[in-house]
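call fold target=Coagulation factor XIII A chain
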Amino acid sequence: MSETASTNEEKKLPLNGRRAIPPNNSNDEENEVPEMEAFGLIPRGFNPRDYLRVEDIYMFKEPHEINKQEHHTDKYYNPKLIVRRGQPFQIQIYFNRPYKPETDRFWLEYLMGRYPQQNKGTYIPIPVGNELKPGQWGAKITHRENNSIRLSIMSSATCIIGKFRLYVAVLTPFGILRTRRNSATDTYILFNPWCQLDAVYLDDEKEREEYVLNDVGIVFHGNVEDVKSRSWSYGQFEENVLDACLFLMDKAELELSGRGNPIKICRVASAVINSRDDNGVIAGSWNNSYDYGVAPSAWTGSVDILLEYYSSKQPVRYGQCWVFAGVFNTFLRCLGIPARLITNYSSAHDNNANLRLDFFLDDEGKVDTRLTKDSVWNYHCWNEAWMTRPDLPVGFGGWQVVDGTPQETSDGMYRCGPASVQAIKHGHVCFQFDAPFVYAEVNSDIFYTKMEKNGTQVIESIDTTHIGQLIVTKEVGGDGMRNITEEYKFREGSDEERLALETAVMYGVKKQSVRDTTYQPQTDVEMDFQAQKAVLGNDFKVTITFRNKSRNSYTATTYLSGNIVFYTGVTRSEFKKHSFSAKLEPSSSSSFDIVIKSSEYMSDLLEQASFHFFVTARINETGKILAVQKATILEIPTLRIKTKGELVAGKEMSVIVEFTNPLKQTLENVTLRLEGPGVLRTIKKQFGRIPMNSTLTWEVKCIPMRPGLRKLIASLNSDALRHVYGELNVQIQKP
């Protein structure tokens, strides 16, 4: 832009010798744009009214009008124009007189931030031409009538994502006349998975509807043997959510010029989603006490969290992995990056990235909790975002792992990704970002090691199949589960799997080979462990089975340890110890049942009702140890949701939530939450207590806004019982 008379404030800018202007990393700030930019002295008789002048600009920004319909942005609850890059949109300009192409000259200007610059993509002048070129900025007149013209405008397929300010500039002999600043003409430009030239282009319409436009999803939790699911409201189209997501990039201080690149956006977002080291969105807490905040299990969706952060600018308490992943998914879908939430069952949290989790055993074969630092999470949630990777060799585009849960630092901050799923599968972990960490989460081996008195370590048992047994996401177009384990790893034991592992080791993933150590397992006896499915508050039994495949008789000194664990596999307390001697006859199987009473576990139970059993057996005749570990989860009762009245957009209806307390105790400090995108905003209600066996009923009146298939999601939280959910699909009719 040509020089303008600087205001006093501009003169006081803290200049430094390194850059001519301060960093431009806020989409919110603005600069002053002069309405009359003179070329020199203005003659006395000059009257701007004698020239072409803009009287009004019509943006076609209503949800039912052409722009939002064609750009798939009609669901955003936002009065301004929202379009996707690399695709034409329409505006209409009204002048004070008919436009004369022979003599009149005007152009459009799109500006972003405090210091717009053309070479940074934050100042975009668009002359009016005769044709639009695909994927490049341009404008052409499509219709002229009386004093108005209709323009078709094409944005660049690589342009910055965010909110632009629009000005129309008219050339006169003595200077440039501009329209006044008008926030009603602000234009949001988002990523465009429908545009082949966009880095996030996705070619399947059903997948675009799921991964960009679906505003509810499913979180899979529980464990491998007992997969559980719950709904999560992403709410990426709700009021103010788009502005909150743009604010996250300001908070992360991402230069405006870098905001057209999905790789950069994912990398900075994975850091700002968690509060570690940058006061980001969510404070994590894994210790079962959630004072002055909301328990992670109580959230039903992302909207409350994002809006609270956007208004308070302080981390929202509290989250665990599925909360970080749910909010991250909202952020990505809101900006137009296709995204899905992933659950990895038996996920390794390996503290030194050596593809090996060490569980140390003491003399009796019990796990030594003092020495054991690694842990196996029952499940861990992260996200995948879809994009090309021009920074990597060909073939590594597509789904990329990004993870907002703070686990380990990457380049000095708690963040993870984007890491190519394809690179992880083939062991090419040399490609940025954080591929070795994700590779270890899905591929580590478990080593059971005994510490001898003299400090030497003896490996007793190695489990190569426990970690990353099942990796899932929600299916496209339904609420079912899709198994995507094969996208991350080859089949256990296949030649390809060996090759991928050797490749990963070659690229620097540390793996200690078993040859370096003395390891001779007992191969002629197998041990298996099963737990009966059980409902919270009831007794249940577990079964240990031995198969003696040899011709020898053996006796096995067997030790069972039952622990109450956080879903991260970290033990809170041991509630069951049981040891017995098992006689193993030649070539036969024998089973042993152990009863677990509710009185043994109820007092210490944590919110996800997770148990972790270690079973170790020493074969007395050979001195060898067999080891197995398994997580089990209790069935938690659900909330019942029903509706009353007509389900019509714009008419009042009732939602009723019911819950019966199944425990042998009174529930204290009960909170219910209910939400449904397009039907009702999140409502919470506190209930003092629910005595045992009694039923709570809560009725909420609401007026649904949007017709179509919608989902209601409810959660109940109390001191003794958490992770109680309910959901209901409702079909809202058109009025």
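return ok
The longest strand covers residues 571-584. The domain at 520-633 is CATH 2.60.40.10 (Immunoglobulin-like).
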